[in-house]
Amino acid sequence: MFSSDEIEAMVLGSQMVARSADTTLAKAARNALAKITAVLPADKSREADASGLLAGALKPAVADRVDLAPIRSAIRMERKIWIAYGDETGAKTERRIWPISLTFCATVRLLAAWCELRKDYRHFRTDRIVAFAETAEGYPRRRRAMLREWREIEGLPEPRY
After folding, report:
1. What is the pTM assigned to this prediction?
2. Helices of type H across the chain
3. Which domain holds residue 145?
């Protein structure tokens, strides 16, 4: 059974995802928490409902121009995508990338990917992606290995689950 701390972590995490992720993921977070609390014993379910932890208000995230759900799917399926991207000046470029990670920051979302043009890892603000297309082409390397390599380059520790 979940401890009180674990229940609070799930409630708080669900609230944070629901307020900062794309619409599909936000709905999934709320649904997952509802399913978890539905199968908890009554006292633990009441504990989740009465949690004193709240995800604080944030400045609204910059609106994305594209739906992130298919990009998340491309990450899971290890599929290359094509993007049209507008930089901070508004100049548009096109890139074929291998998306490996989405980071949900307070006000922006960052897509980390291997960029075929630059032959290096790059970060793309999702609000600057103006169009994208999925491809049926998979990565030539495993995403897990690429993610490990990217983390090392960025100085990010491996997650501990």
Report:
1. 0.79
2. 4-20, 23-39, 42-49, 69-77, 143-154
3. 69-154
